[in-house]
Amino acid sequence: MTLTEQLKSRGIRTAPRRKVLISGASIAGPALAFWLNRHGFEVTVVEKASGLRGGGYPIDVRGTALEVVRRMGILPRLRDAHIDLRRLTFLDGGGSEVASVDPHRLTGGVAGQDVEVRRGDLADALHAAVRDDVEFLFGDSIATLDQSGHGVDVTFRGGGRRTFDMVFGADGLHSRTREFLFGPEEQFHRYLGYCFAGFTMRNTFGLSHELMMWNTPGRAAALYAVGGNDDVHAFLNFARPQPPFGAFRNPEAQRELVVSVFADAGWEVPGMLAALHDADDLFFDAVSQIRMPRWSSGRVALVGDAAYAPSFLTGQGSSLALVGAYMLAESLADRDHVAGFAAYEHGTREFVTVNQDQVGEGDATLFPTTARALEQRNDMLRNLGAMPSGEGRPAHSALALPELWPVARLLAQKKAPVS
Questions:
Q1: How far apart are CA 177 and CA 183, in angstroms?
Q2: What are the tens digits of pLDDT across the range 49-65?
Q3: Residues near 399 by Cβ (< 8 Å), separated by ≥ 6?
Q4: Considering the entire predicted model, what is its pTM?
Q5: Three-state secondary-structure class, residue 63
Q6: Dihedral, CA of residue 56, residue 58, residue 63 and residue 67, to nearest 10
């Protein structure tokens, strides 16, 4: 039974389905596609990659975002993929242990409730929840946007042209959609003083369900074992006064910069640098946030990192993307784009801001830049190990989700495909 037939059978009047395009198929994009489809939109998702990106570094789903994935019906799948990180061990410059702590004490998470999964596992779950109901265009991207008419005329890099009622940018920290609408990224980019490189390497260390981090002032190296498998996530983080813009699109320059910073480092860092040389999954970026005075222009809106990246220092990037997608779709359920985008910002911005402001707590304290600050951090970690686990940070649950609009609730109950 089609959506129109379902609604007519319930005596609900229908209007022509609004056609929308979402740029980005990682976290925010498929989540938004799911909820817009549930609200009766005809959804297309375009993604420049040739397919879903598997694997990836671990991410957290906490607080209000847990309710989003529960309403989507994917929480059991995510719990099955839960990494269950059991220990964080911190080392000094000589490789000796400083402290070993329960992860939840540091991150503000809640044991038994929060979910930590590989980024690819979350992306797979989101895609599986919506792939039969919306159109996915992999290996393509938006070339131009034109809002001069009654909709948004889109030209794709693959050569196609289509018109949509609305377009959404869910294309990450370095969003092209945001650049089309508002101009260069630099005006919204809040650099937090660090750069990082992440990649996978062989687990020759016997690590399982744990993270080990080595620190000297302004430098950190970590090995993150998400299970007892053959690989670990390697992570190299360093302080830098200004972002190295010249390296962002040059993998060789990235490798050279990281090697120069860690050339005299001890512990397992020499082996990590050797693995970095051959890594085919290197991810390098600045630690930064996106802060914008508004998230929409005309018929185009931004969601997730494209609008309000909080940085990995907060541990809230994926959770903000999931909550933002829900709030944006719910705001548009019975409103036009003008009123809907206004409602989205009104209902979501305070939650976004309080979570972005978590920088300076938890993970952000892990990378001191002076010897004195490093010793203070080490004292904090030693004391933390003796403290009981907390109840989670209030910021993570600072937004109560509105109830589903009736059409979405009907579809969720029926679990019927939209055709």
A1: 9
A2: 999 987 778 888 988 99
A3: 64, 323, 327, 347, 348, 350, 351
A4: 0.88
A5: coil
A6: 50
